[in-house]
Specification:
Length: 186
């Protein structure tokens, strides 16, 4: 019975070692970093994203964010400080838009380039800039006009609250630095 009594403690030791190894491995995994758009408005919204990719400007859509829910529009560490969004209120018909023009279409899309949208069979849509401050993770809160005391007074865009950052304490944004003449204008 001596061999049998050694097997039980050996199994227990191997099991505990496995649990400790798993815990160490999981804690070493990097935190997930994404660009999220959280909809605090009363209606569902559709989101299009534009950004500077390795091969130039790229626009993608559509993600849907129901009221009080978030949509992850870019997965992984944010490679750039600046991203561009166009958000349409699916029921009310309004939009969060801006003056950086990129190509879109009504169906799901991934479009490379921002030039000659109409000639290429796409729509020319104004996106607004989101400054992620070179953080690897960013959450944007969209709010209704009635819920936003800091609404812009320009009449071009619906109120937008960009004050929520759930990211880490910085990182190398790389890629596009924003500003200048390369903001995706047709």
């Amino acid at each position: 019975m001596i061999p049998g009594s050694l097997v039980h403690p050996l199994r227990l030791a191997l099991l505990l070692a496995g649990v400790v190894f798993s815990a160490l491995t999981l804690s070493a995994l990097p935190a997930r970093a994404d660009l999220r758009v959280c909809n605090q408005s009363a209606n569902p919204v559709s989101v299009a994203l534009g950004y500077r990719a390795d091969k130039g400007w790229q626009s993608e859509g559509w993600w849907v964010a129901p009221p009080t829910k978030c949509a992850v529009v870019y997965q992984g560490d944010l490679h750039s400080r600046y991203f561009y969004l166009y958000v349409a209120d699916d029921i009310g018909g309004g939009a969060w838009d801006g003056s950086v023009f990129m190509c879109t279409r009504d169906e799901s899309f991934t479009i490379f380039g921002v030039e000659d949208c109409l000639a290429r069979g796409y729509e020319r849509t104004g996106f607004f800039e989101v400054d992620t401050q070179n953080k690897p993770d960013w959450t944007l809160q969209l709010t209704d006009p009635a819920n936003n005391d800091n609404a812009p007074d320009n009449g071009d865009a619906a109120p937008l609250d960009q004050g929520t950052d759930n990211g880490g304490d910085g990182g190398d944004g790389g890629g596009d630095t924003g500003g200048g003449d390369d903001q995706g204008l047709d």
